Fold each of these.
Amino acid sequence: MHSSDKRQFYTNKRVFVTGACGTIGKELIRQLLEEHQVAELIGVDNNESELFFLEHRFSDFPNARFFLADVRDVDKMTRKMRHMQIVFHTAAFKHVILCERSPYEAVQTNIIGMQNVIRAATDNKADRVIFTSSDKAVNPTNVMGTSKLMGERLVTAANSNNRGGRTLYVSTRFGNVLGSRGSVIPIFREQIKRGGPVTLTNTQMTRFIMSIKEAVRLVIDSAVLARGGEVFITKMPIMKVSDLALVMISHLAESFGHCPDSIDIQVIGVKPGEKMYEELMCSEETRRALELPDYFAVLPAFKSLYANIVYDYPEVVSQTVNTPYHSGNDRCLTKAELADFLIQNDLLHEDPRLCSHPAERIWPRGL
């Protein structure tokens, strides 16, 4: 998608971002303020301290305002979303084990919170709502993934049941964002800094990867492409997690005063609910998917009840998709390619804007 098209789309728009203090939320706000001429940006989050720092970081932008708010509070969402045109919903509980231990809390934020955002956007006649989903929504094996799948279903249903309304609802789904909070990279870095061992769950595990900047760029693109009710699935490179560990040891060990050969790799086993490979599109979805240059667009299984939506994207690579999109189906990056990816995206070295990470990886014994 041409950058001029995106700039024109966002110029003088009023944009609302939930989860403003999260990794995706912060980068989304940065790109919208620094690279697009938005008229107004409102960011909300329930993290008081991080919101305080975020407001200082963007203090040079008089069109940006930040508020303490929780997506569980539908009245607050409705008030703060007044006159907003584009809504990016990134707020969520995302840690698998914590959601497994407290499923009611995951439901309150990830499902009911999504419904609250939909209701607020509908009441305020917003133009578009973009929900950032996860690979874990595909064939979910845990509470977090199930809650994300329900979020997608609510978005599609909101679009289908939109009777005479102007709001378009769309989801965008992607895999691991390397360098984000919760990413394995900061943990590996801390383990290498301490001289090892570097802990792997399984040597054959594969994952989709992308940088924070690229993930957010594609979220911004999907709002422009949206016709209503789709799930946009970002095309991503694939890595073996064991290769990531080896590349990071090779590039970082000496800078921390260690010989790369002295750092051991320890296999600790797969955690409960964890998959050996990541899925971004299941076999059922392939039957209603189109391939675009940077995405797959999964069209709604149930079409809009009140509108005849034409899914006429500017560029279509293929009208059919035959293979489920998961990280076990395609070629993994070589170690050299993975090293280039990490270096080009400045992912090897610590980001001072992120909080410190522990070196330990523990699997809770019980829920």
Amino acid sequence: MVGSYCATFLKPEMLHIYRQITSLRRVRPVVIAQKLENRECFPFRDIHIIRKPTFHFLRRIWFKQIADRPWQISPAEVRGIERALTESNAQLLHIYFGHIAVLLRPLVHRWQKPSLVSFHGADVLVDMEKPAYRRATEEMLSLVKRVLVRSDSLRQAVIDLGCATEKVEIQRTGIPPADFPFRERGIPGDGQWRLLQAGRLIEKKGLKTALCAFAKFRKEFPATRLTIAGEGPQLEELQSLARELQLAGAVDFVGFVSQEQLRELFYEAHIFLHPSETGRDGNQEGVPNSMLEAMATGLPVFATRHGGIPEAVENNVSGILVNERDHRALADALIDCAKDSARLAAMGRAASESVVKNFNQKEQTRRLEEIYLREIGQ
């Protein structure tokens, strides 16, 4: 039995966590959460809900606004989680997201069995410029038995925070290739290219860079359209930029889409954009899930040298990488490749082969099970 702690089970963008938990076979997972969302999308039987205390919001205010340090769970919450772990006979606790593990420090300190935490990207460097937050993270890293990261870049970031090198292990996101079969893309003879970007509409996704690059690309190919799938706080700002760039009629903001709808968007597209950039708060990517899914279907990726992206996209082989925030370089790369259909097709095939080889869910689940069993001592 393995206890999987997710503060909220599950937000729409956490499909990769659901895939990971439900694909386990050699261990049996039990989910511990404080809040349930989207139950129809993420059905799971064995879930223990640990309710937040009545004055939870007052504790958060005291910690964050008065004490200016990360809040942590209350003694009652510690007892509730510990009770759920004991009743389930859990032999190991896996905490999803580093910033959540910081909040669970009292539990990790008290519980006698192994705990491990997985970092996914945004949970590594955000707020680390604040001494109290950095000290709390260092304390958490000293308490857990193992630290899992999604990319080598995140591995180095965690080590730079003071984590012992021998504790850190790369555990990549798994993509089920059968759900995203390769399909050869035809090159539009009429210049009606279809570009796609999918993800949260937040700063680190580089959507402004994508729009500026698209504006230049469209001057060469006026019939081109860009679809942006996802929700987030930048929506109005991006729509305004699209109007400013005279792209309002060529960019489709389709909002959050289901997995089935996203799959269809992949197959309708010729090129996938993901020009990620480090946010002003330190937020960065691991290896983006939507990018891996797009690659599996045979979409060449035009992205940036950011976070774990270069570990999935080989420049000039499975896609094109440019520097962060360089929309001119991104546009020039798009234009060059659109004029070389054989090169674009070859990159699409290489992208699919790379995901099958390096990010296959079955293999990544097997690796995770091995980590669990090793830490449990079996």
Amino acid sequence: MWPIAWRLRGGTDHVEFKLGKTMSQAETEFLRALFDAAVAAADPMITVPLALPPKPSGRVVVVGAGKASARMAEAVESVWGPCEGLIITRYGYSRPARGIEIVEASHPVPDAAGQQATMRMLAMLDGLGPDDFVLALISGGGSALLCAPAGDMTLEDKQAVNRALLESGAPIGQMNVVRKHLSRVKGGQLAAAAYPAKMLTLMISDVPGDNPADIASGVTVGEKSTVADALSIIGKYKIKLPDAAKAVLAGGSSVVKPDDLRLTNVENRVISAPSQSLQAARQLAEDQGIQVRILGDAIEGEARDEGKRQAALAKSVQQELGPEDPPVLLLSGGECTVSGWGGGVGGPNAEFVLAAAMELDGQTGIRLIACDTDGVDGAAEVAGALAGPDTLSRARAIDIDPADVLKRSDSHTFFGALGDQVVTGPTLTNVNDFRAILIQPPEA
């Protein structure tokens, strides 16, 4: 097998971990270091200043929403100084601000704090002129945090829609299509509210493909989809809507089309994306002589199916390695889903790891990690999980049946019992899921 060395998190020295009794710990720490590198590459304090133009003269208003938005605002004020504005972020994700107001609200299901702050934001943009400048800071999570239900929908109606979407198993892009047509702020409507002011939107992508129209439901991006598209998605995934939501769709939505005059002064720019974080992890691994294969940064689908598929691929890769070959690292990003929720406490990343561990079934020389870069996997305050050859045997030793856990979508409880959860707290960024599988060559 192959020794691994890397710069320890927060340290200044390189430490080499020889294989043997310490290999389990070495590989686990290395996988966690890869995740940390991926998160660090998307830190708004690094990416935002590089994207900021000189501060415009005249009135400048900063608005935004998302799990990374408060950190983005902090980065803006580190360059521009105190600014006027309003940011909505998830509870626990606030950052110090010198002028911009930071409001915390609920995610993934919106609450009154988010709704009230959204209405104040729209009022702040109303009446701006052509000499004014709006900087919008948008990241994943903004779709739930920016809450302005259309028509006669109440907050309770909006919450019911969000819960139904989250439970449907629909890909994030299709969920956002439905959200846009039931909103007064999504699908370009935030930008339209600021017209005729100039607007620059800086985005941190958490969606497969990095399409600006999908990031936080494209609040500053023109929308091509129609109500008919939304209804098709609702029918396909059997999404139950409250009557007020059905009435909105029956009457047509207020999304802004891409050629709308009110979008002519808007520039949308993606400044952080999953591909950049995967490249940061790749560099760390290649520095150790590890062969890296990136499977893709936009992988979607059922988490358990993808876990099984990638584990099978890892076994196949290992079979091709000779005893003297260097390890191979499989990296991937994207956003998997968990549908048909079984009532447990789980998330897509932990479910991916559990399904992969079951497919590997004790295979030696293969370990993996899967985490959400925002520090929250599903609705749990857990980023994800780690697994290795002994995962299933340790679970069975304490009378936990992995198959039953997977059936109940209870992966966070499973890895919590084993002490194999990855808990980061708020990372203050969000570039979607990070998955890494480290494959050691077979012993001679």
Amino acid sequence: MRHVQAPEARTAQTRTRGPRAAAAALGVKPHGYLPLTLLVDLLGPGLSVALLLRLPDAPLRAWVLPALLAGLAWPAVRLCRSRYARRTLGESRGTLPVLHDWLILLGVLALVQVAAELRHPPLRMLAALVPALLATLVCQKLTYRHLMATRRAAQAVIRVLVIGEPTAADDVAGHLASRTDHPYVVVGVVAVGGSTLSSGVPIVARLGRRAPVDPAADTAAVLAAARTRDADLALVTAGAQLSGERLRRLSWGLHDAGLDLAVAPGLVEVSVKRLHTSNAGGLALLRIAPPLRHGLQPALKYALDRTLAALVVLVLMPLLVAIALAVRLTSPGPVLYRHERIGQDEVPFTMWKFRTMHVGADARKAELAGENEQDGPMFKMRSDPRVTRIGRLLRRTSLDELPQLANVLRGEMSLVGPRPPLADEVARYTPVERRRLSVRPGMTGLWQISGRSDLSWDEAVQLDLSYVDNWSFTSDIDVMARTFRAIVDGRGAY
């Protein structure tokens, strides 16, 4: 499991660094991201178009002009899409935004080609632009990895001063400290009221529970605390003591002094795609869209599941036969293991897998209960004596899961979704954990690409709940693309 530094530890580490590192710690990303990204976006399409269109007898205009247009058009499209903004560089590893930009590039260049009367075969031009897409994706992945590593070293972070009631401030500080996939580090708290904190974050100042007669008193206390802790951002937590007119006046003072202000509404694991702001008579509203359960995207998911599962079965039929023979010849017993699992809306179904354990393994589960390495209702052992030799290989490569394609074709499972639980696990679920069962279980999911059995039970549940609440068709495509790497890695598969 990944080790996460406590907020005060990450803060202390930042304070002990030299001047150059301290500057990087104030939310400033490494300066090389922008020139590197621009260079890749300029040279990627220009060079690939020039190399592919430059024929021995071709005039200069036939390949130089398209290369220049492609080399300039790609950065122009990316600039219009705000891909070079400081807040954006290094923050994403997603493929779909880059693909969207690339499709816009194709449309722009198609119009330019018609206007300039350039007569190049469309397929050749398309092939010439593919390297630009790949180069940008690789560059984006490298900067993302570097930025994440930099933030784990407590650099390129945003120093946050939390303002609010101690209970809410504790929750925010604890949540931010438990993850390292964001730039925020809590460096202090301005507590509203006289209660204490349990997170260990220092209380730098206190505000009264009631709004002061002079509104500037709140602003002065917060600004003094921000200067003391070198804060870059004031983060106000949800609470009745600091809202309405009091918060409005505080925002005036902080913004006039040049300090950014953010408000945490108390929502957890809600995708920004589901959040929509609006205004009602001057009152700012934050609308949370319900999870997608009906409409075009769920229909596309269902169609993709069936179609892709059928294609995979046809393509991998020789491999399926080979695995079946290996299972049958290396240990006595059936080739397939059938077991009842709980599906969508708690409807049981029979799930199929290639058998990876000796016959009678289920009867030995009770005697091995003391060896369980999971902290929740799931049973997992890293060196389970019931697993066969060929079974260990199948689990390591996830090939034992392939028969579940039949469950996908039958509509009982999806290609992507939460892990299908056992009935005795569901019997011990809390109401929160039962929400995992509101969608069809999947062959792969966020749990598989995030560590599988190496995750704690609480981490696995949070990933599943995040999937259930924030699902979209594009997120399924992203999970499937990242599953291949997780299978090759094999981390957490046993």
